Amino acid sequence: MSLLVTFGVNGQIASVEVSPWKRLLDVLREDLHLTGTKEGCGEGECGACTVLLDGVPVNSCLVAAGQCDGRAVTTVEGLARGSAAEPLLHAVQRELVARGGAQCGICTPGIAVCAAHLCESGALVGASDPRAKVRELLAGNICRCTGYQLVVDAVIAAALPDGESAEDGAGDGGRGDGGAR
Ligand code: FES
Ligand code: FES
Description:
Blueprint: E1 3-9, E2 12-18, H1 24-31, E3 50-53, E4 56-59, E5 72-74, E6 81-82, E7 87-88, H2 91-98, H3 108-120, H4 130-137, H5 149-159
Helix pairs in contact: 2-3, 2-5, 3-5, 4-5
């Protein structure tokens, strides 16, 4: 059985005729050719497939196409503004690049989407320990091979550009922090 599913994707309307049970992850990658969203575990554990659904981070490997009808999805391709010729990266993308926080192509897209939401939600404003808050809010985005220090630096810099220095946490482990969050 297939169903016509119509939803917003990165500000455009998309209609696909798919099984209502097809994973949003697969609809994005196979039907809409938005391959920035990656599959890691495929079972809701790693966060590589994170997209925003009505502005809320979700694991797209756990969302069925039929759940998306009439809703709005933002993928990593939708974070940048500007034009195709002159893209303007989201602040968190710029900081991930500038601070060496961009990791591999599997985990980075999900981290970027979740971190962008974290910045825009104002979750760090007024936080007594912003670094701990970033680690808590990115806890669903797993990297199995490096640490999170530079990612945290980048998110802090993007979310609190006039606030805490990214260097304030320099003592908490560097990139080789064993993956502790
Ligand atoms: S691929 Fe979806 S959470 Fe890992
Ligand atoms: S999983 Fe991407 S760098 Fe570790």
